[in-house]
From TrEMBL:
Record bears the keyword Ligase: no
PANTHER family: ABC TRANSPORTER SUBSTRATE-BINDING PROTEIN, MEMBRANE-BOUND LYTIC MUREIN TRANSGLYCOSYLASE F
Protein name: ABC transporter periplasmic substrate binding protein
Cleavable signal peptide: 1-24
A Pfam match: SBP_bac_3
Keyword hit for Signal: yes
Species of provenance: Desulfotignum phosphitoxidans DSM 13687
InterPro entries: Solute-binding_3/MltF_N (IPR001638)
Domain Solute-binding protein family 3/N-terminal residues, every copy: 36-255
Alphabetical UniProt keywords: Signal
Length: 261
């Protein structure tokens, strides 16, 4: 009877606190879905940063467990040690976390036009004579404060749409000529075209902002520095061996360090 009661209590604790399932050789990583960096359960793939984590840590005897939670919870949970690490972090947002020396991705807020359009972004003033398509509540670096906020009520300058299908709608509007420029993260845009089989009839027309993104680790974890150093070492090997390119190809992407070469 006592043994049965103990088993029931253990199962109850694990149901309430799934993090307790993690063993010593498991690394629990959390993030808010941001495909193709890290994807939700409805996607075919887990995301290239999750694939990088698995390639690195499983080679070194660790099992990677990836969970999706709201971004604020992922940050708090990693900071307090509920999760071993977070996927997609920037150094300025979580400066107390433990980072590898080499990034696992590069977030680029990139402008796109139809091929043949010579327009190029050259600061906020260069947007004055085009119609820009954006998605409500998206972060566009400093561009939101320097331009979008000021002009979002003027449909001739900025057209704001809402919803999960925002990128698809903006692409259709760009093709139809209802907007002349859209802005989107470069990897997100390329992955969308790849997944939907949409011909790449678009040209990059400059970048508003870019930021390296990382798999970063809990500041209270005794293993955080070991994990970060392992990522640094193995990222260089993934790139050298071509394994990183193989991972990115699944998402229709190329190495972010080679994009503008």
């Amino acid at each position: 009877m006592a043994k049965t009661l103990t088993r029931l209590l253990v199962l109850l604790v694990l149901a309430i606190h799934p993090v307790c399932l993690a063993l010593a050789d498991e690394i629990l990583l959390a993030a808010d879905p941001w495909c193709p960096y890290n994807c939700g359960g409805q996607e075919e793939h887990s995301g290239f940063m999750v694939d990088i984590a698995r390639a690195v840590f499983e080679k070194n005897g660790h099992r990677v467990i990836y969970v999706t939670v709201p971004w604020a919870r992922a940050i708090h949970g990693t900071r307090t040690g509920q999760y071993d690490g977070i996927i997609g972090a920037g150094r300025t947002e979580t400066p107390d976390f433990v980072f590898p020396d080499i990034e696992q991705g590069l977030a680029c807020h990139t402008f796109y036009v139809k091929k043949g359009n010579p327009w190029q972004y050259d600061g906020p003033a260069s947007l004055d004579h085009v119609t820009l398509g954006v998605i409500r509540n998206y972060s566009y670096g400093t561009l939101f404060d320097t331009y979008i906020r000021q002009h979002q009520a003027d449909l001739a300058k900025v057209q704001v749409i809402s919803g999960e299908s925002g990128l698809a709608l903006n692409i259709r509007k760009l093709v139809a000529g209802r907007i002349e420029v859209l802005i989107e993260d470069r990897a997100v845009f390329q992955y969308f075209l790849h997944k939907k089989g949409i011909p790449d009839d678009f040209a990059r027309a400059g970048t508003a902002a870019m930021e390296p993104v990382y798999i970063a680790f809990s500041p209270i974890s005794a293993d955080a520095r070991k994990y970060a150093d392992m990522l640094t070492r193995e990222m260089a090997e993934l790139r050298r061996s071509g394994a990183l390119s193989d991972i990115l190809k699944q998402y229709g992407l190329t190495d972010w360090r080679d994009v503008d070469k």
